[in-house]
Structures are given as C-alpha cells and as structure tokens.
Amino acid sequence: MLLSLIVPCYNEQDAIPIFYKEAKQVLEEMAVDYELLFINDGSTDGTLKILQELARKDGQVYYISFSRNFGKEAAMYAGFCNVRGDYAAVMDVDLQDPPAMLPQMLQIIRSGEYDSVATRRSTRDGEPVVRSWFAKRFYRMINRISDADIVDGARDFRLMKREMVDTIVRMSEYNRFSKGIFGWIGFRTYWLAYENRSRAAGETKWNFRQLLRYAVDGVINFSQVPLSVASWFGMLMTAVAFAAVVFIVLRRLIWGDPVAGWASIVCMITLIGGIQLFCIGIMGQYIAKIYMEVKKRPHYIVAESNLRQDHKEGAPRCLER
Ligand code: UDP
Ligand code: MG
C-alpha cells in the first residue's frame, strides 16, 4: 500500500522545512510506504532550491516545478495527475492541515466504509468577522443553487482512494473549483472536524478581493442559476410595464393628459438599462469561462521535475490538451 501526499507550495521557503520534518515523522511512525510530491507553483523565493535539496537527500520526495504561478488549483491537479498511491491526500505546506491527523484518516478509509476522509474547520475563530460572514452567506447560497454538495469550512485537505483520484483527473476542466469537484463526484465521505490553526510560517496568499473572485468562480462553475436571472428580471419588468399601461390609460380617462412625468421616464430607462447590462455581465462571465475551456490550454507548464518516466506510468494519465 502506497500513500501519496500532494503539497502545493508558493513562496514557502520558511514553511517547507517545518512541514517536511513534521510530516516525515508522522509518516515514519505510521509504517506505510509513502511518497511526498511537492508542487512548486512558480515561487520567486528559494522554494525550488529547498525542494531540490530535499529530493536529493530523500528518495521519497518528488517535486514538479511550474514555469510560473498557475494557482493552487492547477498545482493540485498536477499532483493528482502524478501520484501513484493507492491513497492520496492534498496538504497545505503551512501546517494548517496537521499531518498528525493522517493516521486516523488512513484508519477510517482502510476500514472500507468510506472512499474519502475530508476535513473541515469546526470554527472560524481567528478569521476577520466580515470574512466569516461573507463565507457563511456564500456556502448557504451555493448549496441552494448548485447540485454539488459544498460543506461550509471544508478544507482541501482530504485523503482519497485511487478511484476518486482517477475520477478527479478525468474531470479535466480548465476552470477548476476543487471544493465543488470533490462534492460533485460524490463517493462516500467521512467528515472530520478540527480546530482552525494559524500558519506555521510565511503568510497567506489570499486577500479579500481574491476570495470574492474565488467565490464568484465557484458559483459560475457549479451553477447555471445566475443565467436565469435575466429571465426573472424580464418577467418582473413586463409585469411592471403592464401595470403602468393600465395606470396611464386610467389616468388619461379620469384626469386628462397633462405633460408631466419625464423624470419618471428617465428613471425607468436607466433602471432597465442597468438591469440589462447587469444580465449581459452575467452572461459575459459564463462566456469568458467557455472561451477558456475551448482554447484547451494546458492547466500548467512544467519547467522542471525529478519525476522519471516510470513514475509517470504508474500515475493516472492526464488528458492531453
Ligand atoms: N498555494 C499555491 N499557489 C498559489 C497560492 C497558494 O500553491 O497561487 C499554496 C500555498 O503554498 C499553501 C496552500 O496553497 O501550501 C494554501 O495557501 P494559503 O496558506 O496561502 O491559503 P489559506 O490557508 O490562507 O487559505
Ligand atoms: Mg494556509
């Protein structure tokens, strides 16, 4: 039995040595075969150097280095495409996903009742209040309007069976939202909750704007509901227009027809114009996604790696793009 850990790293020179030490210790205690696959996601600091060094000293360490920063989603995908393990897990390098949970996760998955063991934060303590509030609204909304089951506080840290990894690799869409993909493919998942903890070293790569972008991407990738917003507005406006016609006819009959009301017309024109642009904007978001999909560009470009050909043959084949 082989256990593979996928570790995306972006400018993590301070965190990698700490992670390596802790993960290594846990894995040795577990007495299983394992491989550690680090993905250097276009770091501009000493990350690659550290990974090369680790790989030279330790035969169980592999790395893939991207030609530039492609984002964590691409890094995870590269990991899934290149691991050979019967079980695989994605872990952040900042120790926010504690390696100490691995033995318990492996035990649960090996009992055979579950195909994956996922983790979620039991609290959002230590996070800015505004961010928590938006995050909660986001999860409530996306679960209502999409058929992927997305759990609030879910982390990307999860241990999966080979079958699940192969399925994820087959979902080769360019716009990736892993939380949605994990939920969409189904399988029997066991949820483990744990206390949120802060980064071991370095700092988070996310600011509020990026998180908002991530949330919008999630909705667009996993729901078609926003597209129907235009139809709803259209119906509403039609109803309003009918009511207005009736009102104007009645007013003409009762009070005659004084020339007034240009202000209300201007208001109506700008309102309708605004709604139309808003709806076109929503469509534009989807079209932009389609545009990226049909280009069939690679998810990532490998600049350097220590994976040998025979290693790649044991891993699921990524769809050639
Ligand atoms: N990461 C990455 N590419 C990126 C951004 C982040 O590979 O463009 C990695 C990062 O090195 C870390 C993990 O993704 O291992 C989670 O990132 P971070 O800790 O910044 O996110 P947070 O935990 O704050 O959500
Ligand atoms: Mg983190």
From TrEMBL:
Residues annotated as transmembrane: 229-250, 262-288
Domain Glycosyltransferase 2-like: 4-167
GO cellular component term of the entry, any: plasma membrane
Annotated InterPro entries: Glyco_trans_2-like, Glycosyltransferase_2, Nucleotide-diphossugar_trans
UniProt keywords, alphabetically: Membrane, Transmembrane, Transmembrane helix
PANTHER family reported in the protein's UniProt record: GLYCOSYLTRANSFERASE CSBB-RELATED (PTHR48090:SF8), UNDECAPRENYL-PHOSPHATE 4-DEOXY-4-FORMAMIDO-L-ARABINOSE TRANSFERASE-RELATED (PTHR48090)
Name used for this protein in its record: Glycosyltransferase 2-like domain-containing protein
Protein species of origin: Eubacterium plexicaudatum ASF492
